[in-house]
Amino acid sequence: MTATTSGETCVDCQETVASLTIRSRRLCASCFIRYVSSKILKRMESYRFRNLAGDQKRRLFLPISGGVSSLVLLQLLDSQLQRQIGNRNRTAYDLVIARVVLPDTSGLATIDSEYQKLAQRFPLHNFLPLVSLHEVLQLDAGMRQDLTLLGIDDESGESEEECMQRILSSAMSVTARADLQSILLRRLLVSLAKQQNCETVLWGHSDSRLAAIALADVAKGRGGSVSSHIADGRSLHGINFNYPARDLFKVELQTYAQALDEPLTYATEGDATDQPTTSIRNTSIDNLLSSYITSQGEKYPSIMANVVRTASKLQTQKEGNGVVPCTFCIMPTTGTGDDSADSLILCYGCTRMKQEIRG
Length: 359
Ligand SMILES: [Zn+2]
Ligand SMILES: [Zn+2]
Description:
Layout: E1 20-22, E2 25-27, H1 29-42, E3 58-63, H2 68-88, E4 93-98, E5 100-101, H3 108-121, E6 126-127, E7 131-132, H4 136-139, H5 143-148, H6 160-169, H7 174-195, E8 200-202, H8 207-219, H9 226-230, E9 233-234, E10 240-242, H10 250-259, H11 285-296, H12 301-313, H13 348-355
Parallel strand pairs: 3-4, 3-8, 4-6, 5-7, 8-10
Antiparallel strand pairs: 1-2, 9-10
The structure holds zinc ion (ZN) (2 copies).
């Protein structure tokens, strides 16, 4: 994806001078914006007016991470809803926006002011106050109990914040810590979405991110849950998951953010996928694969797209077909769940993670 100054005409509108090369096609900025917009809105079809009964209005939950993908998703859905207001004076759905602050995050004041600015730029939507990861201990009723399955017991007299620090520092490897944190994060977001009566969580993940997740899941012994992890539709969490940006590469979302009349500013700091890998020892499998795909995947976009397409085609295990969700990560367990008499069961991935946790 390169910008040039040559005088070629855009292949879509045949009028304007092309400024971008997208998947080997020369496009002008406005045709590129339309391209990204149509890819995402096509994935939002089921939330249109025609799928609503009477005055019904849906509530959709959009977690933003500070990275480019969820921000682009917010901007695009905002313009869709603005158009709906212009045409019908109402919207087909409400957006509830949340942002989680992870432990050891520096620059909380900056995050807070960025978040405030975002809420001002997109005033149509319901921005929840910033949430800390440790709030999962309170919002997810089963969390403390489920942690004991990993050998992490409650300790009296500590604050939730201290408890979360202890939980994360009980992981003996960077990969186990990242794995644990991402499960806690997902459970926190799902709890918040349910608390807000949202029917769906809209994840901002790009194709590149989904490919990294699929490969990392396999590497972590979570291959059995790949298809459930990246599928659109009802999740075992009891809420819908939807990935509207799944047909776009991260670099395309970055280009889009810059091509807008009012460009989107996003932090690349904290976005580990953009940082060079300094030491393998200090890198989790997730970050390693993310940076590999960001640096190499661009050169082989069709292979990356295939990773996601193939992984999605693996049989998705749905609740009710005798599938027992893992008590901790809420992903399908692959075995028959022989010792599931008390319905507390860990999947293979969580069992492996547990081996790297000192209780
Ligand atoms: Zn054009
Ligand atoms: Zn599990």
